[in-house]
Amino acid sequence: MTDEKNRTNSKGPQSYGPVASVYDTLMREVPHGTWLSRIERAVRERGKEPKSALDVACGTGIATQMLVARGYHPVVGVDLSEPMVQVAKTKAIAGQWADLAEFQVQDAATLDLGGRQFDLVVSLFDSFNYILEISQLRSTFQRIYAHTAPGGIFAFDMNSIFALKENLFTQRELDGPVKHDWVSEYYEDQGLCRVSMAFWVVDAETGEERHFSEIHWQRAYTETDICTWLTEAGFVKTAVFGNYGSRPPVRNSDRWLFVTQRD
């Protein structure tokens, strides 16, 4: 193991630095809207009508913007990566919705929004797998509980053990505006997945191509442990779905959706 793993407790600056500027392009095929709609269906099925929303590990504000567009207010997005949050703020200003969303650089494990609570808390696209220390993830759930209003819903997804063991992060795209080559390696004895990411981006103004790389780490957690730690934090009525569907996960479900609530 390298020192990079030891320095990375969550989705931090060294994981999402240079890539912040091209993140939205990379994510253009990711169905954030479909995922959010599935969460909203789960919310309705519980008889809830949330008004306010908190987007944890919001990145460049893709889901945050969707929450604003869907009428939630107030909406707050938090992320540990300052470059990602800066992109989110810039987009909000350019899109003239900056007065409808607030962004802050915060570590989810020490989340502190001054006692504010939200009807709906979401975290999309396996952000919590980036939290490598169990104590930090348990603290994250505790801090999110403190920021969830009574009766509020907390929904998030995670990569399954299957996804990390099967190296689903390994992918290559050598066409388009952002070329990338990612190679993942799973260390089963430690439950860790290391992803070496290489990027090539063409500057729109100069036509010059620049290259940069990042190392990402994710931890594989069990469904049972996640549910246990949610209960310890105070959440109740936790449900788990495979791949954002309507049924519990099966062996080869690569993504788990957790929906839980505060009484």
Q: Mind explaining what this structure looks like?
A:
This protein is an alpha/beta fold. Helix content is 28%, strand content 31%. It has helices at residues 3-7, 23-26, 32-45, 62-69, 82-94, 134-146, 161-165, 223-233; strands at 53-56, 75-79, 101-105, 118-123, 148-159, 171-173, 178-187, 192-202, 209-219, 236-242, 255-261. A seven-stranded mixed beta sheet has the order 3-2-1-4-5-11-10, sandwiched between helices. Strand 8 and strand 9 form a beta hairpin. Helix 6 (134-146) crosses helix 8 (223-233). The longest helix is centred in the N-terminal third of the chain and has 14 residues, at 32-45. It is globular and about 55 Å long. The model is unreliable at 1-14 (pLDDT under 50).
Describe the SSE topology.
Blueprint: H1 3-7, H2 23-26, H3 32-45, E1 53-56, H4 62-69, E2 75-79, H5 82-94, E3 101-105, E4 118-123, H6 134-146, E5 148-159, H7 161-165, E6 171-173, E7 178-187, E8 192-202, E9 209-219, H8 223-233, E10 236-242, E11 255-261
Parallel strand pairs: 1-2, 1-4, 2-3, 4-5
Antiparallel strand pairs: 5-11, 6-7, 7-8, 8-9, 10-11
Helix pairs in contact: 6-8
Give me the side-by-side strand order of the main sheet: 3-2-1-4-5-11-10
Average pLDDT for all residues:
93
Main beta-sheet annotation: 7 strands, mixed
Given the helix and strand composition, which structural class is it?
A: alpha/beta
Low-confidence stretches: 1-14
Q: Give me the count of strands.
A: 11
Q: How big is the Rg?
A: 18 Å
